Amino acid sequence: MIDPATTGSPFTVLTFIAAPALLTNATSVLAMSTTTRMLRTRDSMGQLLRRSEGHSLTGADAQQMINQVNRTEKQAGLLLGALAAIYSALGCFAGATLVTLIAAALAEFGFKPWFAYLGVILGAIGVGFVVLGSIRLFRATQLSIMNIHEEAQLIRGRYADSRNALDEEPII
User: What is the domain partition of the chain in residue ranges?
Assistant: First the structure.
């Protein structure tokens, strides 16, 4: 543990405590936004279910619907994995803050707590979990974009004939 008496700055210990606390705060925001994305994915699946009810889709429309359902389901799985990684990171950052705080308090009383390095290790593991969660979030976003692109193509295809017919009609 770094002793403020040897470094000449009382802010050294504060820095070791503040860093994991800031990471905890930032990761909490990431967790909230990921939860929102998970709920929106559930809403998307509900919309796909409603769209499939009462319609007997065939051919390209049926394949497009199945592709979107598969991607939305995979997106939900990725978001769940991202959320698990983010929650794990939160636990690591909170643990790092607590361990560092305890080690700093013990150092004030002249103890040399051997577990002070555990805070650094927990912080590093937490950063790893944030990276893992971010990769999963990026992949989930790619799947969402694929669904948007496919829906745009479907809409353009459905209205291509109408657009051609509108172009041919005389304007009065």
Answer: 4-168
